[in-house]
Amino acid sequence: MLVVSLGGSPSQRSRTAVLLERSRQWLQRLGVEVVTFQVRDFPAEDLLHARFDSPIVQHFLQLVEQADGLIVATPVYKASFAGALKTLLDLLPERALQHKVILPIATGGSIAHMLAVDYALKPVLSALKAEETLQGIFADDSQIAYGEGSAAAQLAPALEQRLEESLQQFHRALARRPQPVAPGVLNERLLSARWSI
């Protein structure tokens, strides 16, 4: 299984990145391959000018195409998700999220921003033909405390539990996805099948 983890925060130190890192570690313990992109990994010129021929954009598009699922995490700014994330999502082809499981994650200053996932992010994911978008997670800033120095960030117990439950649901959804059959294998199966009327 391959999951693309996509962070929408332009900041080097961000709460959304903390949740993505926890998610990556959890999934990798179950043998899921996770490739992480942050919007700050992309040159601003590539995003602003929609440079589809950029090597990093090409790499991103290829991995999204191959992925079984995506985790899309964003801070909430002005009652919506990060503009840099929207610019990156705009580079995806129209049906890029078809047949993929999507787990949205958002962080914001207060619980008042919780609906940004449903009213701002999910419609964009839907426009990319996401067929299975999970409920997702919202965390307010008070639920994620940065550690001192190099110590890991701490999550509030309620958030830790919600994150694990959402990741379990995400993993189950990934596992039940029908796996594509290579054309040669499918042809061989059809030829060797016993037909009866």
Automatic annotation (TrEMBL):
Residues 1-139 form the NADPH-dependent FMN reductase-like domain. Keywords: Flavoprotein, FMN, Oxidoreductase. Pfam families: FMN_red. InterPro entries: Flavoprotein-like_sf (IPR029039), FMN_Rdtase-like_dom (IPR005025), NAD(P)H-dep_FMN_reductase (IPR051814), NADPH-dep_FMN_reduc_SsuE (IPR020048). It is an enzyme of class 1 (oxidoreductase). Its EC number is 1.5.1.38. The keyword Oxidoreductase applies. It comes from the Bacteria. One of its GO terms (molecular function) is FMN reductase (NADPH) activity. Gene3D superfamilies: 3.40.50.360. Belongs to the SsuE family. This is NADPH-dependent FMN reductase. It comes from Pseudomonas fontis. The gene is ssuE.
